[in-house]
Amino acid sequence: MKNKNRKDDSFPFSESSNIKDSIHNSAISHYVEQTHSLSTFYMIAAVSQIFLGLTVVTVSVLGLIQPQWLSTSLIMIASVTTMIGLYLLYITAAKRSKHNSLLRNAMQRIMQHKN
User: Alpha-carbon distance 90 to 70, whole Å?
Assistant: First the structure.
């Protein structure tokens, strides 16, 4: 096995400058970088979970699923899934707004301290 040093693991200069330039060049890439986070993934997952749970409940209530025992069990599972999705959406939104308010409060303290 070869011994690697740190210089071998890094990108060549031309590749690293291209990556750095491409990240900070456009407003779209800046927006994507800001919104590309785990909380955005949680929001999308929660909304899709709510939508799919309500869809299954609607299909079951309309009677499109014929055996009554299967329809009842699907309604129960979909209801719980929808509640979990709502809880996940609430927790994610609360954490996101809490982070923004924390930053806002810190900025207000700095501005008051400056004056």
Answer: 30
Q: Token pair of 73, please?
A: 């069990």
Band of pLDDT at residue 105, cut at 50, 70 and 90 = confident
Instruction: Evaluate whether 112 touches 62 at the Cβ level (below 8 Å).
Output: no
DSSP, residue by residue, 50-94: HHHHHHHHHHHHTT-S-SHHHHHHHHHHHHHHHHHHHHHHHHHHH
Task: Tell me the pTM.
Answer: 0.55
